[in-house]
Amino acid sequence: MTAMKTRVDEQYEAILRQHMKVEPDLVFQDDTVLGDVGLDSLTAVDVMLSLEDTFGITFPDSMLTYEVFRHFASLRDAVQKLVDET
Amino acid sequence: MSDLFELLASRARDNPDAVLFYRGEASASNRGVSNREAHDDASALAAQLRHDATKVLAAVVSDPYELHRWVWASRAASCTLALLPVVRDPDEVRALMAQVGAERLVTDIAALEELARATAGRSRGDLPPPSGGASPAAFLLQTSGTTGTGKWVAVRERQVMTVLEAMQEAGALRHAENQVVYLTPPLSHSYGLSTLFEYVRAGSAVVFPRGTSPLGPAGELRAPELAARITAIEGVSDFYAQLSRLLGRTPLPALRHIGFGGGKIDADALARFRETFPELTYSIRYGMTETPSIVSGMTFRPPYEDDWSCSGRVLPVWELRIVDEGGRPLGEGEEGEIQLRGPCLAWPYYGEPEAGDAFFPTGDLGVLSGGRLSIRGRKSLFIKHGGYRISPEEVEAVLRRFDSVSDVRVSMGEDGLTAEVVGEGDELPMQALREFAAERLPAHAVPTNLVRRAEIPRTASGKIRRGPVPSAARNHVRTTHARTEEGT
């Protein structure tokens, strides 16, 4: 492990903003419920594909759960974990 | 086969240990639920229904496996099953139950459990059979339509059986044999319910989406054990649009067949499937809630020499005619409204007077040629504009292909042909979208106005809600002007 692992934060948020119909002035909090700000099954596909492409990761089936996709932080942490493991 | 429950009973007798469906985790150790187990379970539930003398059972069930048990049980007990949409408000459910005279509710929705308990074991012996004097309906299904309020369609067991047997005789169930089918349409819809019976009749095993993936039913196929098991898929165009985007990352090694519901094949999805799987068979079906199962069906096989716009041969149980706007029958190759008649027609609607020998106006436009039917779209949707007839669905399909467009509705507004567009990000490049449309559509079909919307209203079943168009006066781009401007 090195200390130089990619931090996903900024790109992660940009991807969410790109695919979800969020108001431009919405400020994501860790506990923002993604389903309340426009994430549905259609946008979730786009978000996941974009996250996979951008970070070179693959979401295993075990991470395609409502729990992971519930909050801004839960999805971000999952992406970070996959990036760290890569 | 004499009745629907016999479909299951005969499988339990002839192949007791063969799998009827797979439930739960898609692990390799999941051996599935056998014909005998499913049969015994349904028989036990049916004994309960008989004991309570239930005549009309209402189901508001989100888990398709749970609903599937009640489908068989209601047939075993010969009671009517009213398949309610999944609503969570007890008052709304109570009102729907009153519409169909349902005495008892089964549900897996927590908010409705109290209502279900209050109705358990209660029976009212004085209820009239649904739809007047004839034999009681096996199923009551709601049609949403694209406008207006829902109506109930009363489907009789004999009608379902007759169409099933006609399909079998016409060879229209061959694609359903020896499959493990991923059945994505809900069982409370005619497409889901009829495909269930078709695949069970053809001896196949069934897998339903479990509702566990935030990516929807297409996302569940990312589980390798599930994907490895599936040999056939049934779904509507929205589902395939999603699945086709996941294709490269969702190996489906055993897939042999794809069934499209909804009358027309989604051309974009089809192109992606054909690229990934060069040897699949594809089926298309034309039918509606009022026609239990199909009116016509067609299977496309390699080398795919048939016309993809064709919906197949009309089953002999239907008397089908094509009429012009004045209701006069049209000839071979002429386009008009499809009208239907015959003993399998579940129309007029529940509670409405009998229609005698009247034809049912489907509202769909089609052409009959050499006994084969091609569907052209919804009659009510066509827009007359500048001497041309425009199909909003076709214009929508083109605009939807534009990268950052996630949803779109096309209609005729006060200012001309209007496309309401939902974008994926903050910016939706309207001028580029206009050019994109102009390159791909004839000039008369290019929307005059592009209007940004937060969302497009849809019905409970996911169809675009069509109706009066809101004024396009604000927040729009008039595409006939050289200058593109976005309002506030």
Reading off the top of the CATH hierarchy, the class of the largest domain in chain B is best stated as: Alpha Beta
User: Structural class of the helix and strand makeup of chain B?
Assistant: alpha/beta
**Overall domain count of chain B:** 2
Distance between the termini of chain A: 11 Å
Q: Most extensive interface, residues per chain? A: A-B, 24 and 23 residues
What's the overall average pLDDT of chain A, rounded? 89
Q: Helix proportion of residues of chain B, in percent?
A: 25-40%
Characterize the biggest β-sheet of chain B: 13 strands, mixed
The low-confidence parts of chain B are: 128-133, 470-488
The largest beta-sheet of chain B arranges its strands as 2-1-9-8-10-11-12-13-14-18-17-16-15
Rg of chain B (C-alpha, Å): 23 Å
The oligomeric state of the chains shown is heterodimer
Continuous helix count of chain A: 3
Number of domains of chain A: 1
Mean pLDDT of chain B: 87
The SSE string of chain A, one letter per element, is: HHH
H/I helix tally of chain B = 13
Strand content of chain B: 15-25%
Q: In one word, what is the shape of chain A?
A: globular
Q: Could you list the spans of chain A in which at least 5 consecutive residues all have pLDDT below 50?
A: none
